[in-house]
Amino acid sequence: MTNIVEHFVFSLCLSSSTVTNRAVLILQPSWPEIYHGETVTFKCEIEDGGDTEWTYEWKPPSSFKHQNHNEYMITSASSSDNGGYRCLGKTMNGESTEWSEAVRLTVFTSKFSVMSLYF
Fold first, then answer.
1. Which residues contact 85 (CB under 8 A, 6 or more apart)?
2. Coil, helix or strand at residue 59
3. CATH number attached to the domain at 19-111
4. Which of 4, 23, 27, 111 has its CA 20 to 30 A from that of 76?
5. How do residues 77-96 score in pLDDT, each as one tens digit?
């Protein structure tokens, strides 16, 4: 019985292990304020990721997404895209980075709303 419990605890530790690599989220274009209908791309880079094959998880404001791509693109931004975005990387053996720091995106409905902030 003890061996079964030890194996179970060891399996749990393996399935949730964290690597020392850091996930960094980059916004392209680099400004966090865009207009309705514009395109923006988030890119998840793993510091010192080397030749490791990574899959990615994305935490946009409205949902959770798992994908193999290190880019998350919004092709026609709307107000529902406002909020913080994060990513993490996972290796093929189940290890993962911590979540990246959040990058906050603001989508304005018109150029007038941005200009009015300065007056």
1. 25, 42, 58, 59, 60, 61, 72, 102, 103, 104, 105
2. strand
3. 2.60.40.10
4. 23
5. 999 999 999 999 999 888 99
